[in-house]
Amino acid sequence: MAKIKCTNCGCTELKEVFIYDIVSASECSSPRDPVNNYACMKCGHVETYLCELDPVAREKREAAEKGRERVLSETLKQAEDCIAEFKKLSEIILDENSTQRQAREARVELNKVQDRFKREYYKIRETDSKTASKLHREMEEARNNYVGNQQRDRNRYN
């Protein structure tokens, strides 16, 4: 964690406080400016930082951003895996050499993969709509390919 030093005594042991903890409630019931305040535990001096310049808050924001990026990349990987699995299962279903049992099991698994993809897609859409729309196009392309091949196979046997 970033170290903040008291400008009065040089102590590094500071505690985050809110302005209404220091000023009486009649004068100020809530913080008016976007600032973070830290009280020195040794001399009681209060250090005030604008939120965007506060080193502790900046470190927390950066850690939160890294966490969001990590979750997004994991979710993106899972969604891409769903698309790949969808393509593989649709090939099994459409394969002439697959038994009815294999095709039936593949259809059941295909529905599960689609549900899993939807969950991952909605998670991604909340944070990155551009990536989500790209994934949606890929899945639609895989679905259209599957449906088109299904119809072509039906026409071949009719």
Description:
This protein has a 3-stranded antiparallel beta sheet with strand order 1-2-3. The protein has 2 domains: 14-53, no CATH class; 69-150, no CATH class. Helix 2 (55-94) runs antiparallel to helix 3 (100-127) and helix 3 packs antiparallel against helix 4. It has helices at residues 19-22, 55-94, 100-127, 129-157, and strands at residues 14-17, 35-40, 46-50. It has 158 residues and is mainly α. It contains 4 helices and 3 strands, in the order βαββααα. 64% of the residues lie in helices and 9% in strands.
Classify the beta-strand content into a percent band.
5-15%
Number of strands: 3
Determine the structural class based on helices, strands and strand pairing: mainly alpha
How many strands, what sense, and barrel or not for the largest sheet? Answer: 3 strands, antiparallel
Run of helices and strands: EHEEHHH
Provide the number of structural domains: 2
Measure the end-to-end span.
Answer: 71 Å
DSSP summary: helix tally? 4
User: What is the share of helical residues?
Assistant: 55-70%
Instruction: Report mean pLDDT, rounded to a whole number.
Output: 80
Uncertain regions: pLDDT < 50 for 5+ in a row? 21-29
- Overall, the morphology is rod-shaped
Largest sheet strand order: 1-2-3
Rg over CA atoms: 28 Å
Summarize the structure.
The protein is mainly alpha-helical and 158 residues long. It is 64% helix and 9% strand.
